[in-house]
Write a structure and sequence with these properties.
The structure holds two protein chains of two kinds. By secondary structure, chain A is mostly beta strands. Chain A is 0% helix and 53% strand. In chain A, the strands form three sheets. In chain A, strands 2, 5, 6, 10, 11 and 12 form a six-stranded mixed beta sheet that branches. A four-stranded antiparallel beta sheet of chain A has the order 3-9-8-7, with no helix packed on it. Chain A is globular, with a radius of gyration of 14 Å. The relative contact order of chain A is 0.33. Chain B is built from no helices and eleven strands. By secondary structure, chain B is mainly beta. In chain B, a hairpin with a 2-residue loop joins strand 5 and strand 6. Helix content of chain B is 0%, strand content 51%. The interface between A and B is medium-sized, with 23 and 27 residues.
Chain lengths: 116, 112
């Protein structure tokens, strides 16, 4: 079955600490990969995406993610977090096979709390 | 401004009272979709529409209906809401099924 697993459900960091959020997926084919962020009370916003090419992708607000095909992983990183990064983060996968319905398969989400 | 809009943003209703949540996008996107977000479950797709001619069920379609009479609008209809449909609902749109999806602000629905 297709699924996305985010290993960390709740992460607490101090400002300036480095961040890495794990994401692994299970899908029998080519995928597009996404990280979305949901700030408190707001809608989901795209942080970054991977379709093809360089497996290290850079997104907005200093975030980056690395696609490791052999590990079915797409981990999100940021060298130095800020208080304003406090939010919920979702990893999502969209299968690219024939019959693709466009369905995004989301992980359960990781709540990041950054302490000033 | 390119955006997806939803109305209402908040709704409290009672079991069995039909309701419609509207969704509209101004980006000329072909693909639209509805998701519900529940704690610990992430987002799950309810219905999607590839274009105005193709609409189909997602993972959790029971109790919901949709229509796509024109490209920009994709309303979600709850004919007879039940308490288990209390959730946060998001509409999304995309150029196509393989592109990134843009999300609306969400509708928080409570069914008593």
């Amino acid at each position: 079955a297709q699924s996305v697993s985010q290993h960390n459900h709740h992460v607490i960091l101090s400002e300036a600490a480095s961040l890495e959020l794990g994401c692994n997926y299970s899908y029998g084919g080519t995928v597009n990969l996404f990280w979305y962020v949901q700030y408190p009370g707001q809608h989901l916003q795209l942080l970054l995406k991977y379709f093809s090419g360089d497996p290290l992708v850079k997104g907005i607000k200093g975030f980056e993610a690395e696609f490791i095909k052999s590990k079915f992983s797409f981990n999100l990183r940021k060298p130095s977090v800020q208080w304003s990064d406090t939010a919920e983060y979702f990893c999502a996968v969209n299968g690219m096979g024939s019959g693709n319905t466009g369905k995004l398969i989301f992980g359960q989400g990781t709540t990041l709390q950054v302490k000033p | 401004e390119a955006q997806v809009t939803q109305n209402p943003r908040y709704l409290i209703t009672v079991t069995g009272k039909k309701l419609t949540v509207t969704c509209s996008q101004n980006m000329n996107h072909e693909y639209m979709s509805w998701y519900r977000q529940d704690p610990g479950l992430g987002l799950r797709q309810i219905y999607y529409s590839m274009n105005v001619e193709v609409t189909d069920k997602g993972d959790v379609p029971e109790g919901y209906k949709v229509s796509r009479k024109e490209k920009r609008n994709f309303p979600l209809i709850l004919e007879s809401p039940s308490p288990n449909q209390t959730s946060l609902y998001f509409c999304a749109s995309s150029l196509s099924a393989v592109n990134e999806q843009f999300f609306g602000p969400g509708t928080r629905l409570t069914v008593l």
